[in-house]
Write a structure and sequence with these properties.
mainly beta; elongated
Length: 327
Amino acid sequence: MWGAWCARCHAGDGSGKVNEPTITVEPMDFTECKVTTPEPDADWERAIAKGGPGVGLSSEMPGFEDSLTAAQISGFVSHIRGFCKEAGWPSGNNNFPRPIITEKAFPENEFLLLPAVNHTRKRQAPSLTDVSFVGVYERRIGKRSMVEFAVPFASHDHSAFRISGLGDVAVAFKHALYASSAAPRIVSLGVEAVVPTGNHDDGLGHGTFIFEPFITAGALLRDWYVQVQFKSELPANTDRADRALVYNAYVGRDTSAAPNTWTVGLEFNGENRELALTPQVRKGLTGTGALAASLGVMIPLNERQERGVRWVGYLLWEFLEPFRAAK
């Protein structure tokens, strides 16, 4: 069936290179592992069943849900995966939707903007509102690794005046140690270095280097995404910053199979003795899901008067994925 239906556009070897093109858009090169591996089977199955428009891509890709059974569509996905001849690439079935706080285990190519607004109301004192924005650039290296650069900007309310400026820049490296394709499960190790670029006296930075080794993992249990992270914060100067153990856990699920679906989730967040719950929603903003946004509220479970409620979220762009359909 591949030879009869698909090869005229995608070529017999899946490269998309044919002597006489039958379509105006350029087909994906399925022999390129970085193209074939990052997406979950569900996305490929939807593309085959619904055609290009079903995943926000060109209408020149027809749908075959009236001609193929579910088992045959699954077989086509396995066939397409087989065009990647290099072993070691983590399956896209382990590429779960990103929580707001918990670090993902899957290596990504993304740019994110993470805003946060913290509103604190203390007794016999005016309420204070702190605002921060963090720009994050993530770049995949090879099959299983990723580097990340985070640049924060903060604005702190001191009642009578406000102080704003650059925070502490962070650089991180992450590597996927284990990834299963049969039952989606992935485990990654990483380390982050926080550089004291923010002004410590103004409360914009810690005033010391901080090294943060971490482990993060994810699994799909029935239709639920489960992701966890443990991180240790080790400051070079403990007079400037305290050591901390950070632990996050996320549970969520999609409301449909479309790439631009809603995803609902709940995070449990902890740092030493500080505990919080963060209910959240995520939505793909384009048909391909390459642009997405999330919104949540971090509700403290203890020390509520000192910490306050924190509105959090992100705007995410998968910069190597198609942004919109080619005509």
